[in-house]
Hints:
Layout: E1 25-27, E2 33-35, E3 41-44, E4 47-49, E5 56-62, E6 71-72, E7 77-80, E8 90-99, E9 106-115, E10 123-126, E11 131-136, E12 142-148, E13 158-159, E14 170-175, E15 184-190
Parallel strand pairs: 2-9
Antiparallel strand pairs: 1-4, 3-7, 5-8, 6-7, 8-9, 10-11, 11-14, 12-13, 12-15
Amino acid sequence: FDNGSEYPFGPMRFYRLLSSQGNVVVLSAQSNYVLSVSQPLMVTNTAADSNPNAVLDYALSDLPAPATNALISTNGVIAWTPGPSDAGSAFTFSTLASDNGVPPAWASNAFTVFVLPAPAISNAMVTSSNLTLQWAAPKNDVFQVEWTADLSPVIVWNLLPQQITSTNGLFTFTDNNVPTANRFYRLLWLPPL
């Protein structure tokens, strides 16, 4: 700092500027994602440090709740698979990349994962001999149907053995053994094949 108090200046002066700025970390931005239940998420974070010899460390600064099974590797790859309880929710992932400088330089990014709602039966067609259920879901999903004759506690669900898949996202199940008594159905969402 030269406040000019030595005016008039005598001999020529030379100044050297020392920067206190350390390393700089840059972390690439991420896009948002839309997933269905059981669809794995794999996101690679790419960070760069102004010091080519710096060692970078990655961490999730905010885990999505209640989906705390998200993992981040030492090279910045986030892995997460939403479960049935995550359906219809949104989760924000915040990544922190820091280096081993003193003090450490850091950068962060964030993205949101929207998990599609659980599929629901949209159409039921009843005839005298059968019942056909229809619903829409991502075409790589797999379902089984369960039924019960009574919704009073304790409910006992019976699993029908057929696994239902679809090539176009419209799922159909027909129960040809419909008795004359009440029968209640529910969908069981399975991991993709």
